[in-house]
Design brief:
Helices cover 77% and strands 1% of the residues. It is an all-alpha fold. The chain has a single domain, classed as Up-down Bundle (A middle domain of Talin 1). It has a two-stranded antiparallel ribbon.
Length: 305
Amino acid sequence: MRDDLIIQIIIFIVSLAVLLKAADWFIESAEAIGLSFGIPSFVIGITIVAFGTSLPELATSIASVYSGKSDVVIGNVVGSNITNILLVLGFTAFVGKKIVLDFDIMDIDMPMLFASAFFLYIAVMDQHLSILEAILFLVALSIFLANSFTGDNKSEKVEREPVSGRTWLFFLLGGVLVYFGSTYTIDSLIKISESLSIDPYFISIIVLALGTSLPELVVSVSAAKKGKTSIAVGNILGSNIFNSYAVMAIPRFFGDLKIPDESISFHMPFMIAATMLFAIMCISGRISKWEGAILLVLYTYFIGE
């Protein structure tokens, strides 16, 4: 058992190293490609990068339905959304430069984020998600995407530049390695937790959510350190909306989803509260280092509960 644990720890370290490098390739090439099409950096973060880094959540959620552990889906979604706001945003603001919002997200994007969290809570209060509700979630996601590309608050001037084949190669390679790197990271985290006899639901709401949020963490911190705060915040916004709508809805087409009592009584209200705090911090147009520290403290409280 000890040897297996050591092997899984090694796999975790190697997978994380691959994830770090791949995310760097992905963020650089994704922005270059997006700018070549005249897409503003915020839209790049809220769509291409955000949804690309959310693929592990979707993949693991579908796999959990097939394995007969569908309660992992809601744990993964809610846990990832909380982790993205409290840990990813908090860590990004704390270790990077202060986050200055050079775009207006309070008119459309933030209300859409809050709506996605609220609608998810309302939909599963009966501990069931119907096919119709899953379809409505995907319709809402489509509306969000359409607004992201046509909204007035994304009308920054973008200078188009041609993209080389090398950029496309690194974009595809980076995306693939982000997926596989995060997948192996998640797998090793789960096996480590099981070896230590940690409760399965705790694994989904904390460990699995943390594992699937690693791409968001790496991409957001990398973007913030390079002064690309638009991508960092857009990544978190887009990822959470994608999680609440797509990652929750798509697995429903593969089977029924179990919704544990703990999700409804504590974790989902906590997710909505974290989303509201995110919105309040964005009103001033900047998120300071100390506000990031507050988010990290709240994440520690969440783990403790």
